[in-house]
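@channel sequence for tomorrow's demo:
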Amino acid sequence: MMYTIGRQLILTNLHMRNFFHHRTEKWHDFAPFLLRLVTGLIFLMHGWQKLTQFGVDGTAGFLTSLNFPAPEFFAVILIWVEILGGIALITGIMTRWAAKLLIINMIIALFVVHVSNGFFVGSGGVEFVLLLITSLTVIMIMGPGRWSVNK
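structure tokens (generated this afternoon):
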């Protein structure tokens, strides 16, 4: 009796693993695209917000408040890295280079802005920045995937 129950559980477990593996395998090519799309959209929107709502002067003012060197210069760099990097991630053009530049952007933001605010995003902490750095690192390592302009 015990052997029969154990055998049933093993067979059920194998069946469920096969069921889920078979169902998810067809989505493996979609996963990198989805990660690129969402991560790219986040950067595109943040860069667009800096450009259209804060402007270069407002972004430079924020950098000045952080004692960042050459704030006007780096405001322009920051805005365009986020906008163009976001577009590159979404489309899959020069994905690894875009991810590298955005990782540098996020590491600077992590140490200059977020690390002193603790962990949680509600207090301006590192939580969301760490997630973005991780997403970008996966994109940089794995590449754009099948659904991209550059394959």
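heads up for whoever presents: DSSP finds five helices and no strands in the chain.
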